[in-house]
Amino acid sequence: MYQVLSFLVLLLLCTVPASGQKKRSTPKPEFRIAYFGDYLARPGAKLGVAYAFAQKTKEKSKPLNREENYILTKIHRLEIGGSFTFYHHPGDHNGYLFNAELLWHRIRNRSYKTRYRHFEAGIGLGYLRYQLLGTTFKPDGESSFKEINGGGNAFMPSLFAAWGMNLRFIKATDVRCYVKPLVMFEIPYGAGARGHFAFEAGLSSSLTKTKKSR
Amino acid sequence: MKNLLYVLTLLLGLLILHGCQKDEIIGENVSDLLWLENKGAQMPILVEGNTASKTFILILHGGPGGSAKVYNETYKALSDPLEKRYAVAYWDQRQAGNTRGHGKLDDLNVETVVGDLELVVGLLRYRYGQDISIFLFGHSWGGYLGNAFLAKNENQAQVKGWIDVAGAHNIWKLTVDGVELMKTVAQDRIDANSSRKKSWEGIRDFADEVDTSVPDEDVTLKVNAKAQEATGLAVSDDLIGSHSPSGKEFLNIFFSDYSLISQFTNTLQTARSDLWQEILDAPLTGKLHDIETPALLIWGEYDFVVSPTLGQEMLDSLGTPDEDKSLHLFNNAGHSPMDADIGKFVDLIIDFVEKYK
């Protein structure tokens, strides 16, 4: 397990300098803020950033009318990201999840009328720190107990896909909304591993001023 | 965007504050979440209800690998009246329910789980006072666990009463007797031209063919699965009353502290352990005469999982004086007698606790 984990971490780290040479433009980091629901209903919040280290853009010119053309754009990116998530499982624990993500991101518009649509898929390597709610006791000799800081750590890899679209009503900057179902695996959990299904819904933006695209 | 950040920060702060606030632990409507960390396992013990009564009912859930919180979140008609009078402690055993931590499968054995139970009883006294009265309520596998606890050393001095609901103190006997009960009931249903005659014929054929001459783990598991199927048929034929969670109780499965996924994960791990083989090899019938604790035994007439003959065996074998033990057979009930008549079930428990607290 540790060998696989080390390999994945190295892979994530190695991809950054190697792919830096492939860049055509300089994409800005994207900041994300989202609602995070562990099993949908255990509420939380997520803050993250993603940076494209490789990008490929395809543009196709299409006639809009006799004088004008419009451009269909398709962008493929490889991104690396980091995030911090907090969630609250009532009557059980609070979870603090630190995650590194490697993802493929596709952006495209299908016609001059449609806004940019986004699709992402990727994997994450996470570290979960959970803090038990209530009071935790440990036996301390005959009929005696000591109060301890109850909690634990776990490795939490994840798989995810996300769908999003740019918001039209925010003109000043590129902002997109997205929804992102995730499957995560908490290892160890008791004597094995436990699956988590989570749902993320939020906003993502590079916080730069919008250029006119058409 | 800025406003959104403010709102999220505020919400986060409120959540953290809510988690940190300290509640009173003695009162008439208390909810006190404790965790016991032992041998790598972090086991939740949720104490709810009237702790001021100084009377505690400690739930030993079924399974192995079940959850105590089920009796709280999806059986409000059971938990509410009990919590109004007494405190109820919902303890999820190691590798069960919402239990977390890094417990090992090797530690999932009778000795360790009984040791955990001794600690839970000790922790309740440590937290709420040495003068509290503790009653054990064991269902199915919880019945085995309760008997194993009471038969060990001086443990029975720690509890005032033992409520055993369809307890599985002898796995091979419940297997053999369960097969006989399935045979009899299936034939009755076939003769009565049940609308599920074909399915009952399947049960009868299984019961006729299964080899119960030598104790065998695979046979016990197959019989257990068939007994669950027979229970479903008996519910369809109105032989057995069933419990349908109310809308709120159903939502509790997803929105309360109870976690179905945790329980499912833990149950899968439990199935990988040697616990079932261990309890099959170590029936407790021979140890029951060592137990002299007042006992309330409740069984269902159509319990194919833990046959009512085990209830009778317990009644006959317990060392408890005759006037302090009783067996109550629920006519329209299967493995969960409370499903048939929850009002009568609660009344029996309250009468028993009032008498011996």
Task: Describe the fold and architecture.
The complex is a heterodimer of chains A (214) and B (357). Chain A is mostly beta strands. Helices cover 9% and strands 66% of the residues of chain A. Chain A has a single domain (30-133, 155-205), classed as Porin (Beta Barrel), CATH 2.40.160.20. Chain A contains 1 helix and 11 strands. In chain A, strand 4 (93-108) and strand 5 form a beta hairpin. Chain B has 2 domains: 2-171 and 243-356, Alpha/Beta hydrolase fold, catalytic domain (Rossmann fold); 172-236. Chain B has helices spanning 2-20, 69-73, 76-85, 110-128, 141-150, 171-191, 197-209, 217-236, 247-255, 260-271, 275-281, 308-317, 342-356, and strands at 30-38, 41-49, 55-60, 87-91, 100-101, 133-139, 161-165, 295-300, 325-330. Chain B has 13 helices and 9 strands. Chain B is globular, with a radius of gyration of 21 Å. Chains A and B meet through strand 3, strand 6 and strand 11 of A and helix 1, strand 1, strand 2, strand 5 and helix 4 of B. Strand 6 of chain A pairs parallel with strand 1 of chain B, so a sheet runs across the interface.
Fraction in beta strands of chain B: 15-25%
Counting H and I runs of at least 4 residues, what is the number of helices of chain B? 13
Q: Classify the helix fraction of chain B into a percent range.
A: 40-55%
- Tally the helices of chain A: what do you get? 1
Q: Indicate the multimeric state.
A: heterodimer
Major sheet details of chain B:
9 strands, mixed
Which sequence of strands runs across the widest sheet of chain A? 1-2-3-4-5-9-10-11
Could you say how many structural domains of chain A there are in total?
Answer: 1
β-sheet strand percentage of chain A: over 45%
Structural class call of chain B reads alpha/beta
User: Could you describe the largest sheet of chain A, including whether it forms a barrel?
Assistant: 8 strands, antiparallel, barrel
CATH topological fold name of chain A: Porin
Supply the CATH class of chain A.
Mainly Beta
- Spans of chain B of at least 5 consecutive residues whose pLDDT stays below 50 are none
The CATH H-level superfamily of the largest domain in chain B is Alpha/Beta hydrolase fold, catalytic domain
